[in-house]
Amino acid sequence: MKIVFYGSGNMASAIFRGMLDNKIVSPEEIYLTSKDNKERVEALHDELNVNYSYDDEELCRDTDYLVLASKPQNFPDVADRIRPYLEPKTKIVSIMAGTQIKTISRELKLDNPVARIMPNTNAQVQHSVNGITYSSNFTAKDELIEIMESFGKAVEIEEIEMHAITAATGSGSAFLYYIYEKYAECVMELGFTEEQAMFLTRNLVIGTGKMISDSDESFSELRRKITSKQGTTEAGLLALDETNIKENLMATLQAAHDRSEELAKE
Ligand SMILES: NC(=O)C1=CN([C@@H]2O[C@H](COP(=O)(O)OP(=O)(O)OC[C@H]3O[C@@H](n4cnc5c(N)ncnc54)[C@H](OP(=O)(O)O)[C@@H]3O)[C@@H](O)[C@H]2O)C=CC1
Ligand SMILES: O=C(O)[C@@H]1CCC=N1
């Protein structure tokens, strides 16, 4: 199998690192390219033994999957590179936020099968959430899902739902990391050093993650087991609720959702 990544940045590298760690593909099957950051691509080649090239004819020759992994605003330039060489057999997989299937087909001026996926960087540890939606002529769904499941969970959705999943899980990890950042700052304000606060917060997050992973109990159940009647946790949760945390998180997700809709129009 030949999988070519047009874009070797944060998201693409999380995906192919996850795929290689899972061994669903060999390094020889992966080809990378970028715009002009050749140092990064060469470093990935040196580290992972994947192929790299800036020869679009070579990159597009006999390619099974071509992954559009640039920022949406750079897609027109990517399309200019691949349009002359794209073969009918090649299936397009886009990870670009917002960019619609019809936009991809229109820009490429070709009717190759197109799938859009919305992953997140948890792909690097094979635990991405991958929203997937397809063009009507995309027939290799089972094969693509098998590839997706090498670095996470596959969630088949309608294209209109991509805005919501982009907000919820595509960007979601960043929202949680931000909450952890602020939590660690608060732990420092309780009197701990920055090093202590980071140690406490990192291990709190890792531990709760393991609890979620090992348990089939709901978040509420897990929370209730910590909340002693009239204790410290109950006092903290009452104060937390008064900060309108639900409204604040909803505003966060809505803003990301709305930006995805804007990108779809560009
Ligand atoms: N980061 C994330 O968590 C997620 C990102 N995405 C989507 O993934 C895409 C990439 O995001 P991200 O990885 O964060 O961005 P990065 O900036 O880290 O990577 C962008 C990559 O695209 C390359 N590129 C730009 N123009 C071209 C071109 N003309 N030809 C070939 N390669 C090109 C860049 O090359 P160079 O370095 O040379 O400029 C770079 O390798 C975006 O569309 C984003 O919406 C989706 C889900 C999650
Ligand atoms: O921030 C972005 O636009 C990309 C898409 C989802 C996560 N990162």
UniProtKB/TrEMBL annotation:
Top-level taxon of the source organism: Bacteria
Domain Pyrroline-5-carboxylate reductase dimerisation, chain residue ranges per copy: 160-263
Domain Pyrroline-5-carboxylate reductase catalytic N-terminal: 2-98
Gene Ontology molecular functions: pyrroline-5-carboxylate reductase activity
Annotated compartments: Cytoplasm
EC number(s) on file: 1.5.1.2
GO CC annotations on file: cytoplasm
Any one biological process term the GO annotation gives: L-proline biosynthetic process
Keyword Mitochondrion: no
One Pfam assignment: F420_oxidored
UniProt keyword annotation of Amino-acid biosynthesis present: yes
Catalytic reaction equation(s): L-proline + NAD(+) = (S)-1-pyrroline-5-carboxylate + NADH + 2 H(+); L-proline + NADP(+) = (S)-1-pyrroline-5-carboxylate + NADPH + 2 H(+)
Residues the record lists as binding NADP(+): 34, 69-72
EC primary class: oxidoreductase
InterPro entries on file: 6-PGluconate_DH-like_C_sf, NAD(P)-bd_dom_sf, P5C_Rdtase_cat_N, P5CR_dimer, Pyrroline-COOH_reductase
Pathway linked to the protein: Amino-acid biosynthesis; L-proline biosynthesis; L-proline from L-glutamate 5-semialdehyde: step 1/1
UniProt keyword list: Amino-acid biosynthesis, Cytoplasm, NADP, Oxidoreductase, Proline biosynthesis
PANTHER family, A to Z: PYRROLINE-5-CARBOXYLATE REDUCTASE, PYRROLINE-5-CARBOXYLATE REDUCTASE 3
The protein's role, per its UniProt record: Catalyzes the reduction of 1-pyrroline-5-carboxylate (PCA) to L-proline.
Protein name: Pyrroline-5-carboxylate reductase
Organism lineage string: Bacteria, Bacillati, Bacillota, Bacilli, Bacillales
